[in-house]
Design goal:
Length: 379
């Protein structure tokens, strides 16, 4: 029994610090502070088992001698944390916010390594990682969804919205990768193209913005917000380059556009990393909102948003059988890792990320979504 107790404590210890890191990264604190706290959590993750190892094997403790009270107390804390995490994962299966009305009408995998070659879309060295067995980094999942919207006017039934998120232009994936993604979106000829943040990782990649994303803004229906990783570069310069490429900044203003004879409001919320924009006008119009983190779902519900699009969590990026994702930088943990959610008349789709900074994806391929709005049948 003692071995079982300490084994559960060890698993709970890992769960405790992983969940803490998840929630830290959902806060809007300075990146330097978050990074420092993350390193401290990593140190604690290693230090506690090391302390236990010393007590049990190196300190000369006899088998009948009880462990120090402080270590026992921490073990019970870790087991309690494990119980909470397990209970929350079980509850996710029957999460009432999980949307049961959205229908996945098409899912196909575009193998970019086979299509254009791993060396064309990955930097040197990354191509080897990208082609490891099980790594889905270059297996872009193209997904078409039919999403019922309660307040959708009859004339807007069938409106098509392309959703890109978390491109993370860093150089690990090449400019060719993003050109291929843009080409797939352009082939759809969507009514709107919406990009929900984490676009550029470093200053040299600002040069990629106009040639890769510019072609998607030719019809004037392209909108964006920034994410937390966009703080790594001059965000003002990034906004200017996107505007020069024809994109509209929903993070700084709400737009009222006419589609098929009906007013549609496109707005954004970049909190907690950037200040809030002006309130969206025309509350009676259909409302589409771009948010980077799904933690803004409550704001979308309060604001009467009909469809919110988010990213940030990458679906966890590495998902284990039965367990699912472990790492999601959200105040809600893994609840909104990816998928479609509904509260009342507000629907939120959380993309798994169209690009990636960390060059490994397992059971969690990158996602490119085309969302077709359908008339709802009531709440």
């Amino acid at each position: 029994m003692e071995a079982l107790f300490w084994s559960l404590a060890l698993v709970g210890h890992v769960a405790l610090w992983v969940e803490l890191v998840n929630r830290l990264h959902g806060l809007g604190w300075r990146r330097s502070l978050i990074d420092a706290l993350t390193m401290a959590c990593g140190a604690a993750l290693v230090a506690a088992p090391a302390a236990g190892l010393w007590v049990f094997y190196l300190s000369g403790r006899s088998a009948s001698e009880p462990a120090p009270l402080l270590l026992q107390a921490y073990a019970w804390l870790a087991i309690g944390a494990l119980a909470v995490v397990v209970a929350s994962r079980v509850m996710l299966v029957c999460d009432p916010h999980r949307d049961k009305r959205t229908r996945l009408s098409l899912r196909e995998t575009v193998d970019l390594a086979g299509r254009v070659g791993a060396r064309e879309v990955c930097a040197a060295g990354v191509d080897r990682l990208a082609t490891l067995p099980g790594n889905e980094l270059l297996k872009l999942s193209v997904e078409h969804r039919d999403t019922p919207i309660d307040r959708l006017p009859h004339e807007l039934d069938g409106l098509r919205v392309a959703h890109l998120t978390d491109l993370h232009m860093s150089g690990r994936l090449t400019q060719r990768y993003f050109e291929e993604v843009a080409s797939l979106v352009a082939d759809w000829s969507p009514d709107l193209v919406l990009l929900t943040g984490d676009i550029v990782e470093n200053t040299p990649r600002l040069e990629w913005v106009e040639p890769t994303l510019g072609p998607l803004a030719l019809a004037g229906g392209a909108y964006f917000v920034l994410g937390n990783h966009d703080e790594k570069v001059d965000s003002g310069e990034l906004r200017r380059r996107l505007a020069a490429a024809g994109w509209r900044d929903a993070g700084r203003a709400a737009y009222s556009v006419e589609l098929r004879g009906h007013a549609v409001t496109v707005c954004g919320d970049e909190r907690p990393w950037f200040p809030a924009a002006e309130p969206p006008p025309e509350r009676d119009a259909l409302r589409l909102a771009l948010v980077h983190t799904p933690d803004r779902f409550a704001w979308a519900c309060r604001s009467g948003v009909d469809l919110a699009l988010a990213g940030h969590n990458h679906g966890g990026q590495v998902c284990f059988p039965l367990i699912g994702p472990l790492l999601c930088p959200s105040r809600h943990g893994v609840r909104y890792a990816a998928g479609t959610f509904r509260v009342g008349g507000t629907v939120m789709h959380v993309g798994r990320g169209t690009g990636s900074l960390f060059p490994i994806r397992w059971n969690c391929p990158p996602e490119l979504s085309l969302i077709t709005l359908r008339r709802g049948s009531g709440r």
